[in-house]
Write a structure and sequence with these properties.
two-stranded antiparallel ribbon; Pre-mRNA-splicing factor SYF2; extended; spliceosome; mRNA_splic_SYF2; mRNA splicing; mRNA processing; 11 helices
Amino acid sequence: MSSSPSKRRRMEPDDGQPAAQEENSRPSEKPPSQPETEGQTPKASAAAERLARFKALQARAKDSAKTNLKEASRENQRLASDPNELKAVNRKRDVAAHKLLKADIEDAGGDFERKRAWDWTVDESEQWDKRVKKKAAARDNNAFQDYAAESHKVYKRQLRNIAPDMGQYEKDKMALIEKAAASGGLDIVETETGELIAIDKDGSFYSTADSTSFASNKPDKAAIDRLVGDLQRADDQRMKKRRDRMAQGDQDEDVTYINEKNKQFNQKLSRFYNKYTEDIRDNFERGTRI
């Protein structure tokens, strides 16, 4: 209790005025700081702001993970249901692996084509070269020549898409040979080398130009399904080309061309000669041409 008067005397100025009045009259040495929000210090405010940003980033990462999981599951479902998508993905993976292997070998200073040829035999290499040459020839021979040539190209393309069942073919062939041999129309002769040869006595077993036995053949359901599938693919391709032509704005025009080059040539003729042949074309449309 005795120490409080001495403390009070030290805090008072020499002239005897109260310290509170001196502090009010004294100008402030520092500018007043900005008011603190809700009684927080600047450090606490910055920490709270960083915490809020961190929580927002966590929420965004969680949402992104959920979205990626949904997209991955949807992609897996689409690949499982659509084999074309799976083929496309496998093709992209093979192309990426091919480019990566080529880059690694070239970075190491090796010859990529030479090293890749080690995995192929001579026969496989010749077959591959023949296939590449055949594809290049087919790609160059895509111009219209005549309807017979177009039909031949369609026929060859259909033959490439046929996958014959050779096992069933051999089974049907042996059944027909046994039936013909039992009826006496076919003789089975064994040669000196042990090879069996079928000899047609009356010429009714092997087909000729005058044979009509193919008319009595009844294909199985799988063969009919293949034929129906081929017709549907041809119809889909025809409709796709028609939609492409309609997308180009040709649905209101008369088709006077057989391919794209012929269309461009007809457009060039129309651009130069339509003004001279307008009367003739109008007479053709009215049916009043003399």
